[in-house]
Amino acid sequence: MDFFKSFADKASAATTQAMDRVHERVDICKAGKKLLEDGGEAAMSIMIAKRTARAAISEDEAVLTSLAQTASMYEDAAAKLRRAIEAPCPEGVTGFCDFESQAEVYEARAKSMREAVALLEKGVQDAKDAAPSASAVEEDAMLLALVKGGEAKLMDGVHQGLDSVKKMSEAATQSCSGREGGA
Fold it and tell me: For residue range 125-171, what is the model confidence (pLDDT) as tens digits?
């Protein structure tokens, strides 16, 4: 019997802790919504500007990573083409005589890409350092501003949805802990 009581107590504590996190998360989201509502178009423009700047920084890093990976692929292709021409060409294979010139083109392309990466990497840290700061409330406001995109109905539904989530979390806490009144 002690095992089951201990298990139930642990489950209740874990549920209460999870519900507290849900409530905190819901409150942050509500505060983000309020920031947009109270701040009007100015707040909306600011949140969209911050979100756009952060997206650009993220894409910047992704482009550099992709460029470096593509350079590696070109280098790998050139090496494989060079190895392939060391053996005799089987009958029926076309373009074998072009492998050497293709390898040279691919090596040159890879070199250009590596130089571009080296040049562009110099400003990445500056861009990261210049990224707009944002509180947790602003993070949610940015997402809401992004989603809003002209759909006023969505903003009305967010408030109702958040209230529903909060009520469901309270009900779940009550049913898991076996007590009335919430966490």
Answer: 999 999 999 999 999 999 888 887 644 444 455 456 556 555 655 65
**What sign does the dihedral 92-97-101-107 (CA atoms) show?**
positive
Q: Which of 74, 53, 29 is nearest to 165 (CA)?
A: 29
- Is the pLDDT at 181 greater than 60? The verdict is no
CB neighbour list of residue 155: distance below 8 Å, 6 or more residues apart = 33, 36, 37, 144, 148
Largest separation between any pair of C-alpha atoms in the chain: 83
Q: What are phi and psi of 151, to 5 degrees?
A: -100, 85
Q: Is 137 exposed, middle or buried (0-12, 13-18, 19+ CB in 10 A)?
A: middle
Q: Where are the alpha helices (DSSP H) in the chain?
A: 2-84, 99-121, 124-129, 136-148, 152-177
Using the structure block, give the residue that is written with the tokens 């809401």.
144
**Cα 149 to Cα 146: distance, rounded to the nearest angstrom:** 6
Q: Please name the residues in contact with 162: beta carbons below 8 A apart, sequence gap of 6 or more.
A: 26, 29, 30, 33
Burial class (CB in 10 A: 0-12, 13-18, 19+), 136: middle
CA-wise closest residue to 183 among 10, 14, 4: 14
